[in-house]
Amino acid sequence: MGQQTYETSIQQAILDLEEPGWDFRSDSVGSGRSAATYRVPQRVLNHSVGERAVGTLTALRSDLVHRFDLRVPGPRRPHVLTLHDLPPARFPDEGSLPDWCLRPLRDDVEVICPSEFAASEVRELLGAQRVSVIPYGVRPSFRQPDPLDRGALQDLGITRPFFVHAAGVTRRKNLEGLADAWAAVAPELPEHELVLLGPPSQRRQELFGNLPRVVFAGKVDLDIVGRVMAAANAVVVPSIYEGFGLPSLEGMAVGTPVIAVERGALPEVCEGNALMTGPDGADIAEAMRAVGRREVDREDLVRRGLERAATFSWEKAARAHLDVYREVLQ
């Protein structure tokens, strides 16, 4: 979700700047049956010869190429590549990359990462020489939206004060830690629910299906997610590996306390303005318990979170991207 939000938001933010002298075009690369600009069989894309050929094609009509994904072949000349993190290199359930993707990056590739943590991953795993850190921004719909009202919450199955989790289900999202935490804390907070946002998942069902007061709210429109977060007691982000961790920023931006694990880029994004915890269930449960029992200064957490979120913007990110483009074109 974070990568999709980045791709749509940064392109629109750059266009909104209306900087003179720039002409932008969006192309895509996909398999033979996709609606991509360049349709290439996956077996060809997976091969280094196909990678070189497609990389040459994508650069024919432009002065500068900005690749939004490592799996998109790049030209053999200076260009820009955004890398959010590298979970396939760290976790076996995060899919695979063609062999050519894991070669050391050419030293004329300017990499954009959303955090210093992500930059360290790219330097270590791909030998990147040129890396610029440009954090994400916040969608307007996550800037202190009106909380979803009681009727709309009930339509999602939410009937009590609640904690909310909005993310994927792969190992790095640490759903095991969240499930252990809820199993421990649910009996102590009988008036609370745990709300899980996301499409139906066997893994969610296996981990949470037998736990009390868990609401599987399903896939919700992104702009509604912010309003659900705004109505929650806390946004819980238990991930152990994030190149940025957009839900932590979004939780702060909507004005809700955030509980985040002190791993990956989450400490960098939250910068002390969330309840930081360890990844184990007992640690996460302690933070949830503190929020549920009102043992923390909620108003202070909300105030500091809003102040922190206000430092992130897509306009700022867009201007930083243009600076990178100018540097590469010199």
Characterize the structure shown:
- With 330 residues, the protein is of the alpha/beta class.
- 39% of the residues lie in helices and 14% in strands.
- The protein has helices at 2-17, 42-45, 48-58, 116-126, 150-155, 175-185, 202-208, 222-231, 246-254, 266-270, 281-292, 298-309, 314-329; strands spanning 29-30, 38-39, 66-67, 79-82, 109-113, 130-133, 162-166, 193-197, 214-218, 234-237, 258-261, 275-277.
- The strands form 3 sheets. The protein has a 6-stranded parallel β-sheet, with helices on both faces. A 4-stranded parallel β-sheet has the order 3-4-5-6, sandwiched between helices. Strands 1-2 form a two-stranded parallel ribbon.
- Helix 6 crosses helix 11.
- It is globular and about 60 Å long.
- The mean pLDDT is 94.
Task: Write a short abstract of this structure.
Helix 6 (175-185) crosses helix 11 (281-292).
Descriptive labels:
four-stranded parallel β-sheet, globular, 12 strands, alpha/beta, six-stranded parallel β-sheet
